[in-house]
Amino acid sequence: KATAVGGEPGVTKAVLTRIQVCETPLVYLLDTPGVLPPKLVSVETGMKLALCGAIRDHLVGEDIMADYLLYVLNRQQQFGYMERYGLPEASDNIRHVLKYVALTLGKTQKVKVLTGTGNVNMMVLNYLAAAYEFLRAFRAGHLGRVTLD
Fold first, then answer.
1. Strands (E), the chain
2. Strand pairing of 118-125 and 108-115?
3. Name one GO biological process term (predicted).
4. How far apart are CA 140 and CA 69, in angstroms?
C-alpha cells in the first residue's frame, strides 16, 4: 500500500513504507507528514508559509494572501505583475490589481440582481478567482524571482 502524497499540505498523514534509494551506503527515503509549530511566531511568518503553500490557502484567505503578496512584490520592486496583467503603473491597491487580473484572464461570474421589474442576470468580475490565479502565478514563478525572507 502506498503513502498518499500531494502538492498541498495535509495529504501525507502517516509513514506507510520506505523506499530504498541506494545500496552502498544503504539509504532509504521516507515521506513523512510535515509538522508546524502549534503557534507561529508572527503573522508575517504565517503569511510567508501560506504563500509557499505550507498552509492551506482557504485557512488564510486567497484575497488576504494576494494582498500580502502584492505588498512584498512592491517592497522588493518586482513589478512583473504589471506587464503580465497589463497594469499601466504599480499599485498597492489589491482590488485594483485583481481587477486587471480578472479582466486579463476572463475571471467573471454570473450573478442575479433583483430589480423592481424582475430579476436580471449580470456578469461581474470574480475577485476571489483572480486572487487564486495571482497566487498560482507567483508559485509558478511567473511574477519574477522573489525571496520572501
1. 19-22, 27-29, 108-115, 118-125
2. antiparallel
3. mitochondrial translation
4. 14
**Helix, strand, coil shares, percent, the chain, to 5:** 40, 15, 45
Average pLDDT, the chain: 87
Three-class DSSP category at 91: coil
Q: Which three three-digit cell numbers place residue 24? A: 552502498
The tens digit of pLDDT for each residue in 51-86 reads 998 888 888 999 999 999 999 999 999 999 999 999
Q: Which residue segments constitute the domains of the chain, with CATH numbers given?
A: 47-140 (1.10.1580.10)
Name the helix (H) or strand (E) containing 73.
helix 62-75
- Please tell me the predicted confidence (pLDDT) of residue 70: 97
Question: What is the β-pairing status of strands 27-29 and 108-115?
Answer: unpaired
Nearby residues of 113 by Cβ (< 8 Å), 6 or more positions away: 119, 120, 121, 122
Q: How far apart are CA 13 and CA 21, in angstroms?
A: 22
- Please tell me whether the overall predicted TM-score, pTM, comes out greater than 0.85 for this model: no
